[in-house]
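Pipeline run #58 for the internal structure catalog. This entry was flagged by the ingest filter as a single-chain record with no existing model, so it goes straight to prediction. Upstream metadata was stripped on purpose; only the residue string is passed forward. Reviewer on rotation: M.T. Logging verbosity set to normal.
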Amino acid sequence: MQYAVTGREMKEYDEKTISRIGIPALVLMERAALETVRALLKEKEIFRTVLILAGTGNNGGDGLAVGRMLAAHGFQVTFFLVGDRERLSKETAHQRDILLNFGFSIQDKLENQEYDIVIDALFGIGLSREIGGEYCELVSQVNAMGRAGAFICSVDIPSGISADTGRIMGCAVRADMTVAFAFAKRGELLYPGRDYVGKLVVCDIGIPEVLAKRQKPETFFYEKEDIVKKLPPRTPWGNKGTFGKVLLIAGSRDMCGACILAGKSIFRTGAGMVKILSPECNREILQSALPEAILYSYQDMPEKEQICKSLEWADAIVAGPGIGTAKAAYELVYACIESGLPMTLDADALNLIGANHELAQLLQKRDGGNVVMTPHPGELSRLADMDINDYKQDRMGMIREVLGKYSCVIASKDAVTMVVDPKEKEWYINTSGNDGMAVAGSGDVLAGIIGALVAQKMPGFEAASLGVFLHGTAGDIACKVKGKYGMTAMDIIDQLPAAMGAEMGESVRK
């Protein structure tokens, strides 16, 4: 697991390292430059000529130090300092003086020539206004160099990307690699900024670990090795009831596929038993496609006694995939919310809640920590009673709006899925997955994965965060096998065992 920070959080860690711990700012700058050079030297490409584009802030000082160290390795380095030299930060002025003492010249006009490497150190995490004028022209020149074959390396964050939101501040450098210092920046994980980062390398520059322990960053993301560490442990003497019983309420007329996809993903993620509540018209195909599942099918309306028995049997609920919004679906969702059982609400269950005041009120009375909601952008907008354009403008604000109404775990699905706990103390940003997963049924698979983890006694926020990462990892494996154009939701399910690790049981016992 790694943390991602906002610009404010990173500044606080820097300031505390300098003022409380006593590590000078120049030492941190030297460490940052050294790690950037190490990352560059690990690249296989053969580099000779380097252009350093430095701004007047500390990001520019990092860049100047990178250039000095690359020159010591034998590279031909051209230094270009942009902006009013009277406004250089203290540390950047110091780095400039070191270069002058070594005999380097620093240009104030960019020469028209080719370079193997361009170091982007124009703007750092403190950028708070739109880039325009000559700076935007310079960014355009950098991107043109990249298209012509130069390797673009951004220092800490690509210039022009908001460290907090990933928004493009007028224009932005498109990097081949970004070397982030101490932590990834939240904006580097969110689109559109994520598309400009290239290969993200996070390096240690000497920010003491104790500072992050005392005041944890609110945002984190998983890496592949975290899957086996975080999966629920398996008991060697367990039985099918030991590993969780999931009640799946899914499907309606002509929507049987949602049942099958969610049910299969529940089994593939380790749950021991699944019971499906679905209309009679789906019975035969469900018995054929999911012979492992228990099935209760009903005609027009499910019997209340059967609903009660099913709820008493279950450890967790997955409700919503393909159920529609008719009266039977309403009654089932109402009973699920009223039961108090841990549950994952997806698709039509969310649409019903967004459209019915009674369901919304009932959900608001629940313990939000054991309810996971998995809305896509349209469903999130309906839950917030806001316009989809509001989502595009301020997604995190809309998530907070829904949290204020329901206090549930929210897994906001999109190209980058975000999960937030009910008290908004932790945000998970997903880094796995690919656009081949943008296919019908992918959300049903995710709901099943999360539901299975909840049934195995994982708290809702942890289950949703790990479930999202596991879902994306399985999608990445499926992409290697099928390609982005040929993937289906079933391909994601087929790769869940591989995503969890073939030796998962052995690894967990160790």
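catalog note: The mean pLDDT is 95.
catalog note: The radius of gyration is 26 Å.
status: ready for reviewer M.T.
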